[in-house]
Design brief:
The complex is a heterodimer of chains A (about 260) and B (about 375).
Chain A (H helix, E strand, L loop, with lengths): L23 H15 L5 E6 L13 E5 L4 H11 L4 E7 H7 L1 H9 L5 E6 L29 H4 L5 H5 L5 E8 L3 H19 L4 E7 L3 H4 L3 H15 L3 E5 L4 E2 L9
Parallel strand pairs in A: 1-2, 1-3, 3-4, 4-6, 5-6
Antiparallel strand pairs in A: 5-7, 7-8
Helix pairs in contact in A: 1-7, 3-4
Chain B lengths: L7 E5 H11 L4 E4 L6 H13 L3 E4 L3 H13 L4 E5 L1 H16 L4 E7 L15 H5 L10 E3 L4 H18 L2 E7 H5 L1 E5 L25 E2 L8 H19 L3 E4 L6 E4 L2 H14 L6 E6 L1 E3 L3 H8 L4 E6 L5 H9 L5 E5 L8 H12 L27
Parallel strand pairs in B: 2-3, 2-4, 4-5, 5-7, 6-7, 11-12, 11-14, 14-15
Antiparallel strand pairs in B: 1-8, 6-13, 10-12
Helix pairs in contact in B: 1-2, 1-6, 3-4, 9-12, 10-11
The chains are: A alpha/beta (about 260), B alpha/beta (about 375).
């Protein structure tokens, strides 16, 4: 009998520490599948920083490095400059990448650092009990915006893909979602493209993945997927913002539909 | 410049540090401009491409220390450098380096503080270098050179120590040492010992995966790890203490000073020679581990210690901890970019020996243009 579907080799079989309905598990699995399919398990080095996914090394059977909050692009730079032929990726949340680590991500992109960034945007700080994130939607309730995000007090959500699209050094930028099987498969394609960008030494790639956090959104897992489709994508439109192969480039951040 | 020339070069201490790092096999340098260490970053920007290495000007000292962290995790010999305010920014990363047991050489060319302070020589970063500086129970190995030549010599050793103990090593200089030009002779063959780093991140091909981390969330794990770290620190204290003694035999009063201040103390000792004053010097070369034992030994014979620092009194705490109440410990310090002169130090010594002012001494003059506290005796 032929096996049509099995767990990826790179994925370690171990109980998950993530909450029910969380998107990290799906993203981890996609990563493991891609690493298997590209045959790069032996030369891939991953970075997981402070946040819910700090324990990503428990799930991926590759060399991995923990990172301080916000610093994965700097650490990845140091690793990549020592091992330019290895594949180096960072796996960062929205607080990590778009708040405390904003300087590091912008400068890594501007240097065209040949790394791949997986940016999990769930519009909330999950690990610390659901505080305001730089990507929290307007009016969204969090533990530190109990009345909802008011732009006059807390500012507006930051659109990372649109922001980085203004930089010449960014080669591939895409925003995808984990809200439906179709979106999951598009996410996988985008992630694969990110790794391909690095393998072909085309410079900086970032894939922003809209991901559910039902526990801190105070929703059921099903409602959280609906929230991504109906609300999050209004603020964060899906699409490819930069593609070195298609010279899709949208300075100022107009998304081009795939 | 060609590193292999076995002759003397006239270099600033900052350049000597950069060149010695290259000779020690460092091929990855990350830094950010700040006075008074700019000669170091500038020299690296020229030399690293010549030797096939990486020079990168980071977007901040925070990024610089984490780029160095990445290079160290990848198994390379890495260096970064800065001065007080920049080192303050690096402290989180230095704690992570210690927590992840990564070897890294960090040069701190101290300037006056607190805050923006000024760019004059200072030794007010002793606490943040020696006492941990960042969060958690950890130690840097801290080396305190007193000349451009010694900067070069200690930089070689810093890389070896970092690798041997998998620990950050800080070279603690100051604006004076960093920017003053002096003759430097580089070792023809640097006696450095590169170790095999089986723990490094290289891709897990053909072996079990490696993980570089400082996170121990399971109850008990972190304490176990901390106990192991402390054992390592005790081993460093056993093996790596370095110091220099000058004229301590029969000395009534022992000066204790490091770096620039130690050189001025030597000048003071020279000026007092023949006057009947018996002054000695203990110069710590390693600030951590601190030379406690030699101080305890000297405390049995000396009448008093006098610690001289360009600070409000930081190392003096460690001297007092070392000798406890066996011997009085006095202090003379200048702050905020002030540099003590040998005359000031001798006056302090006289005051310690005869507080009522009954002891007077004819202190021989030194040339006036060199006499404003910036005159150094040559280091042997």
């Amino acid at each position: 009998m032929q096996a049509l579907y099995s767990a990826p080799e790179t994925l370690i079989r171990t109980p998950s520490h993530y909450c029910p309905g969380c998107g990290h598990g799906i993203a981890h699995r996609l990563l493991a599948e891609i690493i298997d399919e590209l045959g790069i398990r032996g030369k891939t080095i991953g970075l997981a920083p402070v946040g819910c996914s700090v324990l990503a090394y428990n799930y991926l059977d590759i060399d991995m490095c923990e990172a301080a909050h916000g610093r994965p692009p700097a650490i990845a730079t140091g690793i990549k400059r020592v091992h330019p032929d290895n594949i180096v990726f960072t796996y960062q949340g929205d607080g990590d990448l778009a708040a405390i680590g904003m300087a590091e991500i912008v400068h890594a992109a501007s240097r065209a650092e040949n790394i791949t960034v997986i940016f999990i945007n769930n519009a909330i700080y999950g690990m610390t009990n659901g505080q305001l994130a730089p990507t929290t939607l307007l009016n969204q309730r969090t533990t530190t915006t109990p009345e909802g995000r008011d732009p006059l007090t807390h500012g507006y959500p930051i659109r990372i893909c649109e922001l980085l699209a203004t930089l010449e050094g960014a080669s591939f930028l895409a925003r995808t979602s984990l809200s439906s099987p179709k979106d999951v498969s598009q996410t996988k394609e985008a992630l694969k493209k990110g790794f391909k960008t690095q393998i072909e030494k085309k410079g900086f790639s970032l894939i922003e993945v809209l991901s559910p956090c039902p526990v801190y959104w105070r929703m059921s897992p099903v409602e959280s997927l609906k929230f991504i489709e109906e609300k999050m994508t209004q603020t964060f439109p899906l699409g490819v913002f930069k593609d070195w192969e298609k010279t899709v480039s949208a300075p100022g951040g107009q998304a081009t539909k795939v | 410049m060609k590193s292999s020339n076995n002759k003397k070069h006239l270099l600033t201490g900052n350049e000597a540090a950069a060149e010695a790092a290259i000779l020690a096999g460092c091929r990855h340098y990350y830094g950010y401009p700040i006075t008074p260490q700019n000669e170091l970053i500038n020299h690296m920007s020229i030399r690293m491409p010549q030797v096939g290495g990486t020079f990168l000007q980071a977007e901040s000292e925070i990024a610089a220390i984490y780029m160095a962290y990445g290079g160290a995790a990848a198994g390379a010999r890495v260096m970064t450098s800065s001065s007080g305010p920049g080192i303050s920014l690096m402290q989180e990363g230095i704690s992570y380096l210690a927590g992840s047991e990564l070897p890294c050489v960090i040069v701190n060319v101290q300037r006056g503080g607190p805050g923006l302070g000024d760019i004059s020589p200072s030794q007010a970063d002793y606490f943040q270098a020696v006492k941990g500086g960042g969060h958690g129970d950890y130690h840097n190995i801290v080396l305190a050179p007193a000349s451009a030549q010694e900067i070069a010599d200690l930089v070689y050793d810093a890389f070896d120590l970092a690798d041997r103990y998998r620990n950050p090593v800080m070279i603690l200089g100051d604006a004076q040492l960093g920017q003053m030009m002096e003759p430097v002779e580089f070792r023809k063959t640097p006696r450095t010992h590169q170790t095999v780093k089986r723990w490094a991140l290289t891709g897990a091909e053909g072996r079990a995966r490696n993980i570089v981390k400082s996170f121990y969330p399971v109850k008990g794990e972190l304490e176990t790890f901390n106990i192991r770290l402390q054992r390592k620190y005790r081993a460093v204290e056993q093996e790596e203490v370095r110091y220099e003694e000058v004229n301590t035999q029969g000395a009534e009063i022992i000066l204790v000073a490091y770096g620039t201040c130690a050189r001025i103390c030597k000048e003071a000792i020279r000026r007092a020679s023949g006057t009947g004053l018996q002054i000695g010097l203990l110069r710590p070369i390693t600030l951590w581990p601190f030379p406690k034992e030699p101080l305890r030994r000297l405390a049995k014979k000396a009448r008093a210690f006098c610690v001289v620092e360009m600070s409000a009194g930081q190392m003096v705490e460690d001297v007092r901890l070392a000798v406890l109440d066996r011997c009085p410990v006095h202090f003379y310090g200048r702050m905020g970019g002030g540099v003590p002169s040998s005359r000031e130090i001798l006056k302090k010594v006289l005051n310690i020996l005869a507080p009522e002012g009954t002891l007077e001494l004819e202190i021989p003059e030194i040339p006036t243009e060199l006499g404003k506290g910036l005159y150094f005796s040559t280091i042997p």
